[in-house]
Write a structure and sequence with these properties.
Layout lengths: L1 H4 L9 H9 L7 H37 L7 H38 L17 H8 L2 H26 L2 H5 L6 H41 L4 H12 L2 H22 L5 E4 L4 E6 L9 E7 L1 H12 L4 E3 L1 H10 L11 H15 L4
Parallel strand pairs: 1-4
Antiparallel strand pairs: 1-2, 2-3
Length: about 350
Amino acid sequence: MAEEQFQERTEQATPRRREKAREEGKVARSAELNSAVILCLGAVALYFMGPILVSQLKQFMIFIFQEAPRMHPDYDTMVALLTSKVMTFFFLLGPILLVLMVVAYGINVMQVGFLFTGKPLEPKLDKLNIATGIKKLFSARSLVELIRDTAKVILIGFVGYKAITAQMDSFFLLSDNSVGVFAGAMGQMALKTTLQIGAVMLVLAIFDYAYQKFDFEKSIRMSKQDIRDEYKDTEGSPQIKARVRQIQREMSRRRMMQEIPNADVVVTNPTHIAVALKYNSTEMDAPMVVAKGERLIAEKIKEIAREAEVPVVENPPLARALFSMCEVGSYVPAKLYRAVAEVLAYVYRLKGVGV
C-alpha cells in the first residue's frame, strides 16, 4: 500500500482530472502574455492617435492662455471648463481603452477559454502555513521563476539601452529646433523604444506561456494508482460491480426457475445441459426458450420440471443446439423447428393432447 502512495506520476491526466483542475482555477496561463500584448497595442494606438491627442492638448492650452484674463475663477466656470475638456479626452481615449480591454480579455480566453470560478478566492488555511510557504519559496519552480525574471529584466534593459543609444545622435540634433518639434521627436523616440521593448516582451511571453503549459501538464500528471482510483470513483469498484452482476444473475435465474413449471418440455443432454421450452399456438409464433442451464443449473431445472410434472426428454443434439443458439426469452430459430416439433408432438402424445 505504501508503494502505491509514492508512485511516480508518469501518466497523462485524464479528462476528468483536467476538468477538476479547471474547476479549481488551475490552468495554463501566462500573465506576461497579457502585459506584452497590451503594451504593444497601446504603443501602436498612441502612435496613430498621438497627433490627435497632442492637437487637442495644444488647443486646450491655447484656449486657457487666451481666455484666462476674461475667465471668472468661480466654481461653476472651472467645473464646466474641465468637464468639457475631460469629455473630449474621454471620447478620444475611450475607444483605445475599450479595445485594450477587449484584447486583454481575448488573450485570457485564448489561453484558458471561458472560465468563471471562485475557487482560487476561497480562504484556505494551507496558505497561512509558514512551513509550506518556505517550501514553495525554495522550490524548483521558484528557482526557475527567479532565473526567468532576472533574465527578462536583463534582456529588456539591454534592448531598451540599445534602442536609446541608437537614437542619441538624433536627440542631440534637436537642440536647435522649436519646442513643438522637440516634443514630437521625443514622442517618436519614446514610442519606438516602447515598441522594441514590447516586441521583446512578446517573444518572452510566448516562451513563458509554453513553459506554463509544460509546467501545468506536469502538475496534473497522474500515477497508475490515481487512474485506478478515479476509475473506481466514476465507474464503481470492480468488487461492487461484480457483486451487482452476481445479484442480477441470481434474480434472472430466480425468474427463470419460476417459469419452468409453465414449460411444455425440458430437453436434456442428458447430464450437462437442460433447456425448457414453451409453446402456445394462439399466442406465440414459435416455441420459446423459458429456461436453460448447464451442470448444476441443468440439474436444478430437471428437478423443478419433475416436481411440476413437466416432461423431460433426452435429445443431446437438440439440447446442445438450443443451448448454443438461443437465449432465455427468445424464440427457437427456424432451422430447429422440425426437431422441436417432433419433441413437442411426442410430449403431446404422452399427455393425450391433439397436435
